[in-house]
Amino acid sequence: MSKSKHCVGAQFDKDFSCKICGRTFSQEGNLNRHIQSHSGKKPYSCEMCGTSFTQKSHLKTHMKIHSGERPYSCEVCSKSFTEKWILTQHIRTHTGEKPYSCEVCEKSFAQKSPLKSHMRIHTGEKPYFCEVCGKVFSEKWILNQHNLTHTQNRPYSCEICGVSFPVKGNLSQHIRTHTGEKPYSCEVCDTSFTQKSNLKTHMRIHTGDMTYTCEVCGKTFLQKSNLNQHLKTHTGEKPFCCELCEICFTNKQRLVMHMRTHTGEKPHSCEVCGKKFSQKGNLMQHFKTHTGEKPFSCELCKSSFPKKQHLIVHMAKHTGQKPHACKVCGIFFANKSHVKRHIRIHTGEKPYSCDICGKSFAESSKSRQHMRLHTGEKPFSCKICDKSFLIKSKMADHVHKHTKK
Hints:
By secondary structure, the protein is of the alpha+beta class. The chain is built from 15 helices and 28 strands.
């Protein structure tokens, strides 16, 4: 009786602690099995393929791969599974059940493990660390990917450009930069992406889930990296400095782009004409001059556009519809974003600031143009003489001089 009571108490108190990592367990047997993960011992081996396991139950589950045994079937779609708990999780894809909820933000999950990972957003916990460089990570799979940066083993090579990768998935993603394939599409606005994670981030635009908030000004962001970059506008921090001209930047990518103005490096080449560019975005923009890709067509006049938003704005020319009005002066606009931009004339708001010199702009396009003065980027090139320009209109004026000759 006494022993039984102790077991119940241990279940809640988690009396058994791992001396290596501090993790606690309610039963001594679970602790002993856990310790094997530190020792590296895997005493249970598969006789067919040689794979080893720390626990006998894991070997038993693995053997079903060879036997083909899938005793647990879904009554809805007839899919079968090797384990009952996998079937239980699968059924939730039909029922939509999400029994695991976050106590902080009330977000729900179909499985317990995603909830556990999600909680680290709130706690900041990063339990997985690299033994080589000491970097810490919130997820084990991210650590595993990081560990590959310390090894020279990169067995997966691109047959087009020869770049090699340590992980096959990375190669698959890279190949899409050559093929232009974007298999992940948004069901709301038809925008496509090369990676599933990019689609997941994009969907927050439609759901309004702006997870990361600036505590200084209240501005919200889709990604934590964007928030971290934004915070530097409050602190004035510019940790990435050019060693040649001493201009400093808020993030490393802008420094990399800037350095190309000194080195003349243009690592992105067009596969059609061989023209080179300092930035990937400029190459993608250039590539459309070869493909002529304009997938969004007007049914009234057959004009085509590279983006759906451009088509929506164009349609207003036919319908004459301008449903969005300025509350200050009453001028109507066909597009809501045009109203938002127009209102800044009245408010004097200039939300786009240069990280280098502090100059502010009312429009993001003007801010991007200004940044080229610092980076030296000239993305618009004349096809006749290869002269490059900061602004597209300047390039158009230049081309006109050729045509007049």
